[in-house]
Amino acid sequence: MKDHATLSEEFIADEPRTDWHDETLWFVREKRDRAVKQIPEWEQLRELASQIKDHTLSNLDNYLTAFEKNAQANGVKVHWAADGAEHNAIILQIIRNSKVQRVVKSKSMLTEECHLNDYLIEQGIEVVDTDLGERIVQFRNEPPSHIVLPAIHLRKQDVSETFHQHLGTEKGNNDPQYLTEAARQHLRQKFIQSQLAITGVNFAVAETGGYVVCTNEGNADMGAHAADIHIGCMGIEKIIPKAEHLSVFLRLLARSATGQPITTYSSHFNKPRAGQQMHIVIVDNGRTKQLGRPDFRNSLKCIRCAACFNTCPVYRRSGGHSYHTAVAGPIGSILNPNLDMKANADLPFASTLCGSCSNVCPVKIDIHVQLWKWRQVLTAEGYAPIAKKVAMNGMAFVLAHPSVYRIAGKMGRWVMRSLPFLTNNKTFNPWYKQRDMPAAPKQSFRDWYLKNKQ
Amino acid sequence: MSSREKILHAISINKPAFIEPPSMEIKRELSAPSEVVQQFINTLEGIGGKAILTNDMNAVKEDWKQAKETGLYIVNTLPVLGEVNAEINSSQDAHSLEPVFKTYIEATLGVAENGAVWLYESQLKNRLLPFICQHLVICLDANKIVPSMHEAYQQVDVAKEGYGVFLAGPSKTADIEQSLVIGAHGARSLVVYLTSFPSII
Questions:
Q1: I want to staple A71 with a disulfide (CB 3.0 to 4.6 A). Which of A76, A324, A366, B80 is the partner?
Q2: Looking at the predicted complex, does its ipTM rise above 0.90?
Q3: Looking at the 3D structure of chain A, how many domains does it have?
Q4: CB proximity B25 to A under 8 Å
Q5: Chain A contact present for B6, CB below 8 A
Q6: What range does the domain containing A203 cover?
């Protein structure tokens, strides 16, 4: 499997596209800043959200059983899944029991994490993703590259070409309005014909047994209200204790995500409508293990706003697919090593540790600290790349021995001046791949200081 | 052990020591009632909706009458406007609602900070109605606009009915190159009539 650095190299080969990606996500970050500045009590809200989540995690088992009891009293069937495979099997069973063929799905990163679509399609069931961005990537057989903006890696020309192939839209018509309208017409038919709708869950409320799903497009509601069966899929960490806590989270979520004051629809599902079946699948898939890691457990406070993606200088310039996991970006880099340490050992290193992610996080997860701690865990467990280990040990030796450091500096400056072909060389010097070398200074800072200190 | 027991057991072993829930008190300044209405209007227009001030229901009635003259399928759920569409109920399916062009619904309250209105299932008649219609018209008593989500959750019992929604503006997407397009899957337009407006100015 290719690692983050290799996949990033492929992404940044197209420089104008990389610049566009970088600027577009920064624009979203700026919209977030403008929205946040209109709320004088913003920092109080972040602190409150963080404390509500800390409290919830410390009493998670009791809140989950309270939620189960109240949801059952509401007429909702509650299922528990230890991992992705069990989650998928439960959903297949519901589908088989009711002899359903056509399924619509709104955005759920959990189902991406469990690879539900691939599983159902292998079983001969048609699953249609109904979020516009997700439908686009589904047509292209790609995973989403961002948890809020699934098709942000694509330009409108790409979408136009995809829709021309799959929906018969006019070739070369790149107008987003026109393309969105085509998707609207196409997906309306899917909604009307669907028999079963799968949605994610943004917040599940222990005291009411209800749950909230947030969308801008209205696709979760179109699916859930049109179909005879509605399945909501949630990780165990989606629980909050009380309905009043929703006020804090709904104030934070959309402002952090896209700079909107709230999503267009914040739908509160409590009971099935007459003649409808409602199911909830509560999934662990590694979350209880993460709960048992004191240094990393508060990653479970995440509300999936993606503010950390939009601000991250590495994500913006490497694209979501370079993270090779369902949840990319800084938060993905601290969640995924828990799921598979070996396969995701590269991710905590895909960061500058600048801390911008932690600064924008609406629930105050110390993301950059956890990235740094994961590096230590991974190195201790033997998952750090050998080249990096050798280089780090070499660096540690040089920095710990001032005389060696001075000689190395002198040699470096001499090589840059006298043998520039050695440093201005992509084979010998990976640093040079996307950068120009600076001019070699005449003297080191130390030499300059000794000369000028009088 | 079932997965349920396994998960609950793992949590009970791995969870941190109990942490008290925080106080929900937030120090902030609340706007005056007249400012709250203006803020609602500005916010709603900022998210693609439209607010119309009216001192009685006549403007809404006029809107409804004109809509009916188009000959398209118009659904009224408000007795105060005139005849309601009695065929709309919770068991109607998507096929029969798909042709709805415009719908008139009353909201319980509005939220100034984000332009959202709260709709109970009983106000919708059918959960699908405000999503599947092409255009949506909401009537809201301007006295029922609250400053923020905190007051909204104090006043609304979100679990009272089977379903309820905070709805803010028309359906939208920016999934193609971050270009905002109004009218993704839900209603293409949203007009909120603010009734009994003069009483609070």
A1: A76
A2: yes
A3: 2
A4: no
A5: yes
A6: 39-285
